[in-house]
Write a structure and sequence with these properties.
Helix content is 0%, strand content 49%. The chain is an all-beta fold.
């Protein structure tokens, strides 16, 4: 649903016998579509805690507790404006020393942006 779907709705249909049907309509019902602001953006890691051995795989996942979609995601490290990836997951197959740092995901509904708290990833 989008906000422009707000309005008054009713349904109707033919009732009665095949010989003498008649058209009936329901009462009007008012529908208001409201946007839910983005909130509760969180970040999780596999392995948990963001500690990963050199050369291993790290998967970061971004979740949104509430918000009106469709949602888009971007991933950032160390406050960089340049995104590392898009989508609700960031998959680093073979982590290196340069992958250590603070990671955040950003979620957007097209009108607003919300960020997760940073997660410190440590490559051991």
């Amino acid at each position: 649903l989008k906000r422009h779907h707000s309005g008054c709705y009713h349904c109707g249909g033919w009732v009665g016998s095949r010989v003498s049907p008649w058209w009936e309509e329901s009462v009007l019902v008012s529908v208001t579509v409201q946007e839910i602001p983005l909130s509760g953006v969180s970040l999780s890691a596999q392995p948990p805690g963001g500690q990963v051995a050199l050369g291993d795989r790290l998967v970061l996942s971004c979740a949104v507790a509430a918000g009106t979609g469709p949602l888009s995601f971007s991933w950032h490290r160390g406050g960089s404006a340049l995104p590392l990836g898009t989508g609700p997951r960031l998959d680093l197959h073979h982590v290196g020393d340069n992958d250590s740092g603070h990671y955040q995901c950003q979620a957007s509904d097209g009108d607003s942006v919300a960020e997760s708290p940073p997660l410190n990833v440590a490559v051991l």
